[in-house]
Design goal:
It comes from Frateuria aurantia (strain ATCC 33424 / DSM 6220 / KCTC 2777 / LMG 1558 / NBRC 3245 / NCIMB 13370) (Acetobacter aurantius). It is an enzyme of class 6 (ligase). One of its GO terms (biological process) is NAD+ biosynthetic process. Its EC number is 6.3.5.1. The structure is a single chain. The chain is of the alpha/beta class and 539 residues long. It has two domains: 258 residues, Carbon-nitrogen hydrolase (Nitrilase/N-carbamoyl-D-aminoacid amidohydrolase, 4-Layer Sandwich); 209 residues, Rossmann fold (3-Layer(aba) Sandwich), CATH 3.40.50.620. The protein is built from 16 helices and 19 strands. The chain has a seven-stranded mixed β-sheet with strand order 5-4-3-2-1-14-15. Helix 5 crosses helix 6 and helix 6 packs parallel to helix 7. The protein is elongated and about 85 Å long. The termini are far apart.
Length: 539
C-alpha cells in the first residue's frame, strides 16, 4: 500500500502583491517540507491574488507573474513539489492556470475549464476556458487537479475518474457568504459520489475590497462524507495523507472547528475584512462616529478586535437631541475598550450654518433638511479628523438602512469602508449579543434601547420604518430571493407595506452607488453582484 503526504496552504495571497506572494509560497513550501510533505498546494491564482480584475489587462502585470513562476520553479529544485495558481497568456488568450513545479522547472500546467460568470464572478471578461485534464503522478499515485468552479460542474471530475485518477485536488478562491460553506459541502459530496474519488479542497483566506475568503478547506470521502473541515478565517498549513488502500485523503492533526458557530464565523469574517482593508491599504488605524446606538457600538467592537485599541479612535458628536443614554453608553464602551475618545459637540456649528441658510430657507417649514444637516456636519468633522490623523473613517450603517435609503449622503454615509454594509439590522443585534456572551463589550442598554437617529425630539427608527423583523424579512425576499411584490405579499406580508419597502429600495439606488465598500456576507450584496440602473421606469 503506497501513500503520499501533501500540505494545503490555506493562506492569504493579496491581489497584486506578486513578489510578496512568491516569497510566501517559498516560505510555506519550506515549512511544508520540514513537516514531511512531498507536495504543497496553494489556492487559485496564488501569484496574482484573487480577483485581480483589470490588472489582468496589463502586460507588465502578466510578465511579473510569469517571471515569479519561473523563479519559484528554479529556486524550488530541492524542495517539495508545488501546485501554484497563476494567470498565463498564450498568444491572444489568457488562462486561469495552475502549474506543477517539480525538480527546478514547470512540469505541467493546467487551464481552468469552467469559468464562473455570476454573482461576484466575472471570469469570462478575462479568461479563455481550458479544454484538457491534468493528472499529477507522485509515488505511483495519480491525483487529478481542478480549479475551483471545475468541481461545481460534473464533467471535469468525471473525465479525471475515467483517466484513472486515484483522488482529486481542488485549489480555490471561493468567496464567503453565510450559506456558502453548506453549498460547497453539498456540491463536493455530489462530485465525490459521482466520480468515486476522494477530494482535497484548499481555499484561500482574507479580505479583498468587498470580498471575504473564509478558507474552510475540506476533505471529502468517496461516499460524500466530510472527513475534515479547516477553521474559517484562519491561516493554516494543513497536512494531509492519501493512501492507496482506502483511496481517501486523511487529515493529519488539523485544528478543531467545533466551536465555530455561524455567528462566530460571521463575526470573524467582519473582523478579518476590517483588518485586511486597513492594513493592506497602509492606514495606521481607523476612526468612527460613536453615537450611542447599536450600529456604531458593534462597529467599534469589530474595529478593536481587528486592529487593537491603540489603532482606533471613537468620536461622539452630540446635539441637543442626543440623549443622556447615548452619552453614557458611548463613553462606557469607549473607556472599556481603551480607545482614544473625543466628545465634539456640533450644536454651535449647526446653529451657525442654519443662520447662514435662513434667508434662503425663508417661508419653508422645518423638515428632514435640518436633520440631514446635523448628519452632514458630523461627516465634515469626521473627515477632518481622518485627514489630520491619517486614519481611515469607518461608516457604521447597516444593510437594512442602505436598502431603503435611511442614510444621509455626505453625512453618516461618509467613510472609506462600511463593515456592516451587508449586515441586516436584525443580524446586527444578533452579533452584538453574541459578542457579549463572555462579558459585556457593548453596553446592554445600547443593545436593548429602541433604535434612533436622534435628529429630532423623541425620534425612533420606527417613525419612518416598519419593525426591523418585518423590514428585514421583506428585504431578504426582494433582494436575495428576487421575489416580486406580489409574491412577497402572498407570503403573508401587508401589501401596502411591501409596496412601500420595495419602492424605497428602488428609488435609493443612487445613494448606494456612492456608498463605501463593505464586506459581502449575503448572497446578494449591494455592489458588484447587484447592479440595478439608477434611472429606471420599473417599479
Amino acid at each position: 500500500m503506497s501513500s503520499i503526504r501533501l500540505a494545503l496552504a490555506q493562506y492569504d495571497f493579496p491581489v497584486g502583491a506578486v513578489e510578496a506572494n512568491a516569497a510566501s509560497i517559498r516560505r510555506l513550501a519550506d515549512a511544508a517540507q520540514a513537516a514531511g510533505a512531498q507536495m504543497v498546494a496553494f489556492p487559485e491564482l496564488t501569484l496574482s491574488g484573487y480577483p485581480p480584475e483589470d490588472l489582468l489587462l496589463r502586460p507588465s502585470f502578466l510578465r511579473a507573474c510569469d517571471g515569479q513562476l519561473q523563479a519559484l520553479a528554479e529556486a524550488g529544485a530541492d524542495g517539495p513539489d508545488m501546485v501554484v495558481g497563476h494567470p498565463q497568456g498564450r498568444g491572444a488568450q489568457l488562462y486561469n492556470a495552475a502549474s506543477l513545479l517539480r525538480g527546478g522547472r514547470v512540469q505541467h500546467t493546467y487551464y481552468k475549464q469552467a469559468l464562473p460568470n455570476y454573482t461576484v464572478f466575472d471570469e469570462k471578461r478575462y479568461f479563455t476556458a481550458g479544454a484538457g485534464s491534468c493528472i499529477i503522478e507522485l509515488d505511483g499515485l495519480r491525483i487529478g487537479l481542478l480549479i475551483c468552479e471545475d468541481i461545481w460542474v460534473p464533467e471535469p471530475a468525471r473525465q479525471l475518474a475515467a483517466q484513472g485518477a486515484h483522488g482529486l485536488l481542488v485549489i480555490n478562491a471561493s468567496p464567503y457568504d453565510q450559506s456558502q460553506a453548506a453549498r460547497r459541502e453539498t456540491v463536493l459530496s455530489e462530485r465525490a459520489r459521482e466520480s468515486g474519488l476522494s477530494i482535497a479542497y484548499v481555499n484561500q483566506v482574507g479580505g479583498q475590497d468587498d470580498l471575504l475568503f473564509d478558507g474552510g478547506s475540506l476533505l471529502i470521502g468517496v461516499d460524500g462524507r466530510v472527513l475534515a473541515r479547516a477553521p474559517a478565517f484562519e491561516e493554516h498549513l494543513l497536512q494531509v495523507e492519501f493512501q492507496s488502500g482506502s483511496g481517501e485523503w486523511q487529515a493529519l492533526d488539523w485544528p478543531a472547528t467545533t466551536t465555530q458557530s455561524p455567528d462566530a464565523i460571521l463575526y470573524a469574517g467582519l473582523v478579518r475584512g476590517i483588518r485586511d482593508y486597513v492594513l493592506k491599504n497602509g492606514f495606521p488605524g481607523v476612526l468612527l462616529g460613536l453615537s450611542g446606538g447599536i450600529d456604531s457600538a458593534l462597529t467599534l467592537a469589530l474595529a478593536v478586535d481587528a486592529l487593537g485599541p491603540e489603532r482606533v479612535m471613537a468620536v461622539m458628536l452630540p446635539t441637543r437631541y442626543t440623549s443622556q443614554l447615548s452619552h453614557d453608553g458611548a463613553r462606557r464602551q469607549a473607556e472599556a475598550a481603551g480607545v482614544a475618545y473625543h466628545v465634539l459637540p456640533i450644536e454651535t456649528p449647526y446653529e451657525s450654518v442654519m443662520a447662514q441658510l435662513s434667508p434662503a430657507f425663508a417661508g419653508k417649514s422645518a423638515d428632514t433638511t435640518e436633520e440631514n444637516l446635523q448628519s452632514r456636519l458630523r461627516g465634515v468633522m469626521l473627515m477632518a479628523l481622518s485627514n489630520k490623523h491619517g486614519a481611515l473613517l469607518l461608516s457604521t450603517g447597516n444593510k437594512s438602512e442602505m436598502a431603503v435609503g435611511y442614510a444621509t449622503l455626505y453625512g453618516d454615509m461618509c467613510g472609506a469602508y462600511a463593515p456592516l454594509k451587508d449586515v441586516y439590522k436584525t443580524v446586527v443585534y444578533q452579533l452584538a449579543r453574541w459578542r457579549n456572551r463572555n462579558g459585556e463589550v457593548i453596553p446592554w442598554e445600547v443593545i436593548e434601547r429602541p433604535p434612533s437617529a436622534e435628529l429630532r425630539d423623541n425620534q425612533t427608527d420606527q417613525d419612518s420604518l416598519p419593525d426591523y423583523d418585518q423590514l428585514d424579512a421583506i428585504l431578504a425576499r426582494f433582494i436575495e430571493g428576487q421575489q416580486s411584490k406580489a409574491e412577497i405579499a402572498e407570503a403573508g406580508f401587508d401589501a401596502d407595506l411591501v409596496f412601500k419597502v420595495v419602492r424605497l429600495v428602488l428609488v435609493n439606488e443612487f445613494k448606494r452607488r456612492q456608498s463605501a465598500p463593505g464586506p459581502r456576507v449575503t448572497r446578494c450584496a449591494f455592489g458588484r453582484e447587484r447592479r440595478y440602473p439608477i434611472t429606471s421606469g420599473w417599479r
